[in-house]
Design brief:
Layout lengths: L18 H11 L6 H12 L11 E5 L4 H12 L3 E6 L10 H4 L8 E4 L5 H7 L5 E4 L6 H6 L1 H22 L4 E7 L22 H20 L2 E7 L1 E3 L12 H10 L4 E4 L5 E2 L1 E3 H13 L7 E3 L5 E2 H12 L5 E4 L3 H6 L9 H7 L7 H15 L6 H7 L1
Parallel strand pairs: 1-2, 1-4, 2-3, 4-5, 5-6, 6-11, 7-10, 8-13
Antiparallel strand pairs: 9-12
The structure holds nicotinamide-adenine-dinucleotide.
Length: about 400
């Protein structure tokens, strides 16, 4: 991460003081007295102080830490010297995959508790003693949420109350960061979508994630838990679910391209999206978790807009896939929950925490393709791959 040379001069932490300690003392007193513009600007620069030291020796729990984003985050936290506990149910149809931590020996550096966030007694126990919780466990498939709304409700909504109640009763000083989603907005009324945009989700998943998020903010405001939500947009990179298209188009398209199969694009392929490479998303979580600036706040992530056709053309170029892509009419079940054109305004997190997406799409996709070319046996057709050995 770049350390800023700022207009106000690069601030330094008082000697012997950790960033979190510093921010806790600083935020309510001095910052509270500053005008908003100055406050955001100055703290944005403060967060450019190397936040990475904030995690050394801290007890950090990652729910959903065997899944795509959670495992990338857990690995990075281990590298930063945190004492990491991963909590994941490893339900086979979701994105949890032991290989995500096994590769390069991270499973020896991170504790894993295979547990379900729906189980209150378990969560009451596990939250105890944690300094920070990154709360990423979730049912991610939009289509599954329509087929089985009750399970989505249980995991993405009710379980969030389970975790927050566990924190309220057994660890009220904890800091908790929730993984929200741009799906909460539904079809955009205007672009780019900022955090003030009305939420009118088009699917069950969006509704439950919205409720899950607002439970976090409520517990921040009423009970003093320190909670933040990041509204993620389409995220891509290594360690993603690749077995089918249920978890989103990017991973599925990448697999098809690696296998040289044609990529089906619905409609005219001109749908607009913004895509974040997973390392950038991990960095946003780390920035938010390191201080108290973001308590009670909601932030969009985002990136420059790209059409799906542009995305697929780049992917075909990188993989040299002979299958190319084919335009198909929209299937009914997809059209009904599609959000249309979307890209997010990430100005708020940019201003307040100096977060920016740093990995260009070409570079991120190239890294992703290289990862799955090497490790695909652990992400799809595992049974066949094992039988072949
Ligand atoms: N990937 C994206 O593009 C994206 C976009 C917006 C929001 N998000 C959010 O980010 C979070 C992580 O997403 P991901 O892409 O890494 O998905 P993922 O499916 O790879 O990871 C989710 C993890 O949660 C675990 N999990 C599910 N139900 C659980 C339960 N009841 N108890 C314990 N663990 C459980 C799964 O086993 C899995 O490992 C989710 O909350 C998702 O809604 C992701």
């Amino acid at each position: 991460m770049n350390i800023a040379t700022t207009r106000l001069g690069a601030p330094r932490l008082p000697s012997g003081q950790g960033w979190t300690q510093f921010a806790k003392g600083f935020a309510p007193t001095v910052v509270g007295a500053l005008p908003g513009f100055f406050r955001g600007d100055y703290l944005g620069q403060l967060m450019e102080v190397d936040y990475r030291e904030a995690y050394r020796g801290r007890r950090v729990m990652v729910t959903g830490g065997l899944g795509f984003i959670g495992s990338n985050l857990a690995r990075r936290l281990a590298d930063l010297g945190a004492d990491v506990l991963v909590v994941d149910s490893l339900i086979p149809v979701y994105g949890g995959n032991l290989f995500n931590l096994n590769l390069d020996g991270y499973s020896a550096r991170v504790r894993v508790n295979v547990a379900d966030i729906r189980t209150a007694p378990t969560m009451n126990y596990l939250v105890q003693g944690q300094d920070i919780i990154f709360n990423l466990a979730g049912q991610v498939s939009h289509r599954d949420s329509m087929i089985d709304p009750y399970t989505d409700l249980e995991i993405n909504c009710r379980s969030q109350v389970v975790i927050l109640e566990a924190c309220r009763h057994y660890n009220p000083g904890v800091k908790i960061i929730f993984a929200g989603t741009r799906q909460q907005y539904g079809k955009a009324d205007y672009l780019p979508v900022d955090e003030r945009h009305l939420m009118h989700p088009t699917d069950v998943n969006g509704i439950n994630k919205m409720a899950g998020e607002w439970y976090h903010i409520l517990y921040n405001n009423v009970y003093g838990l320190r909670a933040t939500s990041l509204r993620l947009t389409n995220t891509y990179g290594p360690r993603q679910w690749m077995k089918d298209e249920r978890m989103g188009f990017i991973s599925w398209f990448v697999r098809l391209a690696i296998e040289g199969r044609p990529i089906p694009l619905w409609g005219d392929g001109e749908q607009i999206r913004d895509l974040n490479y997973v390392d950038d998303v991990v960095e946003a979580f780390l920035m938010v978790g390191a201080g108290d600036v973001a308590n009670g706040q909601i932030y969009n992530l985002g990136n420059d807009p790209v059409t799906l056709r542009q995305f697929v053309e780049l992917l075909v170029e990188i993989t040299q896939s002979p299958g190319g892509y084919i335009l198909h009419p929209w299937p009914d079940d997809r059209k009904r929950i599609d959000i249309g054109a979307y890209y997010g305004n990430y100005g708020k997190i940019s201003k307040e925490l100096s977060w920016q997406p740093r990995v260009p799409l070409r570079e991120g996709l190239t890294r992703m393709v290289a990862y799955y070319r090497e490790h695909h046996a652990h992400y799809w057709n595992e049974e066949k791959n094992l039988a072949d050995k």
